[in-house]
Design goal:
Blueprint lengths: L2 H36 L3 H24 L5 H15 L18 H21 L1 H12 L8 H23 L2 H23 L21 H29 L7 H14 L4 H22 L7 H25 L7 H26 L5 H12 L9 H5 L3 H24 L9 H16 L3 H26 L2 E4 L2 E7 L3 E6 L2 E7 L16 H7 L1 H5 L4 E5 L15 E6 L2 H9 L5 H5 L4 E4 L2 H6 L6 E6 L14 H10 E10 L8 H11 L2 E7 L3 H5 L5 E7 L2 H8 L6 E2 L31
Parallel strand pairs: 5-6, 5-8, 6-7, 8-9
Antiparallel strand pairs: 1-2, 2-3, 3-4, 9-11, 10-11, 10-12
Helix pairs in contact: 1-4, 1-5, 1-6, 1-7, 2-4, 2-12, 3-4, 3-7, 6-9, 8-9, 8-11, 8-12, 8-13, 9-11, 10-11, 10-13, 10-17, 13-17, 15-16, 15-17, 16-17
């Protein structure tokens, strides 16, 4: 490639990279803009996801449709589309409030489409459209390698937003940054258009010379795109639900998924052979380890899951690349890829939480990867075992299935203790060995893979599903476990409540024991506000706090997840509400929106307990949110904020909000005694705030452990215009020690 060719190549790479960067920057940016206004209910974000996917698919379909025109006409049309979309700059939500009783599934798509639809649509078409232009401008050079630039740009936007843009810039500044990026993309696209052949604008499109793909080939493309897309979201859900709940962990699966295109979309015969031999083995060994349900090595399992996702994505995307059409059919290929990505994403994010009570989509997609990926015999002698007539092959697959079923029975039932204490591990090793011998014989391999997944965790998941101990919603998987002394509720790997049995069933446990910050506040309710105190609690959990309720008091809970209400009130597994507050008032929906609907001074005490270790609803911790709480509380009201968190130091966030809102604040980190720990008390971290210093003084007087809340010097408080978890992640910031 000469200097002119390199310059042309570089210009197209830069234009594609910049467009993809903007595309992945806009989604989290608009989500941050919308959160305070729309709340965090599943209907809102499911609708938003569908809008993004529909716009992306629409952009790819538009790029494919433009193929009917000559390339000069394509350039003219696309530049006009970009110019028209620029009328929606600077990017942001239109200034219309949602109707009080608006249906999110209708209102949210309308709001997002009206706010960013044209911009997202125009940018989404960049990658396939410019690759086609490059092929024409370069005299027929293969444009598929440019897709690597698209995904590197997407990866850059993905990483840049949470690590660089969000921590350093308010939303208004982010909007202008994106606007400047859009202007740059327009200039780059216009520059690329000048390199196209000088044909008349009305010149007809050059008809594709290569044969059109068959319907079977298009369906194969869709399936190869569907599985990695679905597996990426399934891995994210599985890691954060069943392995380890770490903030921003979602960035890693999506980043690896995007980078897999850059590895896969290139000619490399050695890599293709290696993938065909190694990926099936990884599916056998790593896939089963992931669903084993063992948390002794949570971080190791997380690493295994990420490696497996990357390997599967590279393998299936390499298959797609090997089956790619000629450049004159390029946009149809990318349209099929987009359709597969949308279906895979919708299956894992929208359909699976409704169909399944556990992350069953993960093993199903592992099996699908085994069915679709290329395979070559791992051992030379295996070919002699499996090759031959169809009847011979079917017979041997049947024999293998019987062997795997027998191994599964011995490993799970372990009759007479024949396999000892390591019966599951021994059975899994046997099934995996059979699977390794079957690599290259697809049906036989799938039988072994299914057996390995079932033996090493799958059967336990199925058993739990039949017991009814598990519930799933768009917020995660809830599991109830019980024994003679207690009932426990876990949200993934995070404990959300414990109720003791028998005479101690009304006793508050975990973070809510009488010595904790919230416990002391509840015990002081009558002395602070009299016998008719009005209490609000954000986050129902198992309903533990209801056992502080006294006759004459008025309590209301704010809960976003209907599944939690079902567990606490209707399932019969937990009886805090039934015993202590038989007719609770529960407001379903986003707490900030529901609190804003209350009359001013409706509450005397408000407890904010809506945070888990991996997820902080940032819109509940902003300056404007605390203004909402102040409005809902009386001037002498008390706000209790629960900030116990393994990974995030939230005290500086609350301290900044308190300073900006005129609150007085004290903090109590409560360490229970050994006797209390025996009754399921845990360490808790609560902050009490009031705009009346006398109320705070009355609460803390005589109660040891309360200390004034100390602001962190130089910390930038959260607002609806600025918020970032990066400055409060303990692992990233040694200066947070003590906070």
């Amino acid at each position: 490639m000469n200097a002119t060719g390199r310059a042309r190549h570089g210009l197209f790479v830069l234009a594609i990279l910049a467009g993809s960067f903007l595309l992945f920057l806009v989604q989290p940016m608009v989500a941050r803009m919308a959160l305070p206004r729309l709340g965090g209910a599943p209907a809102v974000w499911n609708s938003a996801m569908l809008v993004y996917q529909a716009l992306l698919l629409g952009g790819y379909a538009y790029a494919h449709w433009l193929g009917r025109l000559g390339v000069r006409a394509q350039a003219a049309v696309h530049l006009c589309v970009l110019a028209l979309a620029s009328l929606w700059l600077p990017i942001g939500l239109i200034g219309i409030e949602p109707p009080a009783n608006g249906e999110p599934t209708l209102w949210v798509p309308w709001l997002l489409c009206a706010s960013i639809g044209p911009l997202f649509f125009a940018i989404a078409a960049q990658a396939p459209l410019l690759q086609r232009w490059y092929s024409v401008a370069s005299g027929g050079r293969d444009p598929y390698a440019l897709y690597a630039a698209s995904n590197i740009g997407s990866f850059g936007g993905l990483i840049a937003y949470p690590l660089l843009v969000e921590p350093e810039m308010a939303l208004k500044a982010q909007s202008w940054l994106w606007t400047a990026g859009y202007a740059l993309v327009f200039v780059l696209v216009a520059a690329c258009a000048t390199l196209l052949p000088r044909t008349p604008l009305r010149a007809p499109a050059v008809r594709p010379a290569s044969p059109a793909p068959t319907r079977g080939r298009v369906a194969h493309w869709i399936l190869l795109a569907l599985v990695p897309s679905g597996l990426m979201l399934a891995t994210t859900t599985f890691l954060t639900t069943d392995i380890v709940a770490v903030p921003m962990l979602w960035v890693l699966p999506l980043g690896l998924y995007l980078l897999s295109f850059s590895v896969a979309f290139r000619e490399n015969a050695t890599m293709a052979d290696l993938l065909a031999r190694c990926i099936p083995a990884m599916l056998l060994l790593f896939g089963a380890a992931m669903i084993s349900g063992r948390h002794e090595f949570a971080y190791l399992n997380a690493v295994i899951g990420l490696i497996l996702l990357f390997a599967v994505s590279v393998a299936l995307h390499s298959c797609m690349y090997a089956l790619r059409p000629a450049p004159d059919r390029l946009t149809g290929f990318y349209l099929a890829m987009a359709v597969g990505g949308v279906i895979g994403g919708a299956f894992s994010a929208l359909v699976a939480p409704i169909l399944f009570d556990w992350t069953y989509e993960y093993p199903l997609l592992i099996l699908a990867a085994g069915a679709l990926g290329s395979q070559r015999y791992l051992f030379p002698f295996a070919a002699r075992v499996w090759e031959g007539s169809r009847r011979r092959y079917a017979t041997r697959v049947t024999i293998l299935a019987a062997l795997v079923a027998g191994v599964a029975y011995l490993g799970i039932a372990n009759p007479g203790g024949i396999l000892g204490e390591m019966h599951e591990q021994i059975a899994f090793a046997a099934a995996a060995a059979l699977g390794l011998l079957a690599i290259g014989a697809r049906a036989a391999f799938l039988v072994s893979l299914a057996g390995a997944l079932y033996i090493f965790g799958g059967y336990r998941a199925i058993e739990t599903s039949f017991t009814g101990e598990r519930t799933r919603s768009y917020f995660g998987v809830y599991t109830v476990s019980e024994d003679a002394s207690e009932h426990r509720l876990a949200h993934g790997t995070t404990l959300h409540g414990v109720q003791l049995t028998g005479a101690r069933s009304r006793m508050p446990t975990t973070y809510y024991v009488p010595g904790s910050g919230i416990g002391q506040a509840m015990m002081a309710l009558s002395s602070l506000y009299g016998p008719h105190a009005r209490v609000g609690v954000v986050g129902l959990g198992t309903g533990t706090l209801s056992c502080y309720a006294q006759p004459g008091q008025h309590w209301r809970f704010f809960e976003i997840d209907p599944a939690v209400v079902g567990i606490a009130r209707d399932s019969g597994r937990f009886t805090f509400l039934r015993q202590c507050l038989p007719s609770p008032e529960i407001a379903l929906g986003d707490a900030r929106l529901r609190l804003a609907e209350l009359q001013p001074a409706s509450l005397d005490l408000l407890a904010l307990d809506a945070f888990s270790s991996d997820s902080v609803p940032m819109h509940l911790m902003t300056r404007e949110a605390f203004q909402t709480y102040a409005r809902a509380l009386t001037p002498k009201g008390l706000l209790l904020v629960h900030i116990s968190n393994r990974f995030l130091a939230l005290a500086p966030v609350v301290a900044a909000a308190a300073e900006q809102g005129g609150w007085h604040a004290a903090r109590l980190v409560y360490s229970p005694t050994e006797a209390e720990r025996a009754d399921e008390a845990t360490i808790s971290d609560w902050i009490a705030l009031s705009r009346d210093p006398a109320v705070l003084a009355q609460l803390t007087a005589g109660n040891t452990g309360w200390t004034p809340l100390i602001a962190k010097p130089g910390f930038r408080g959260w607002s609806d215009d600025y918020a970032s978890v990066v400055p409060v992640i303990r692992a990233f910031n040694p200066s947070l020690k003590g906070y």
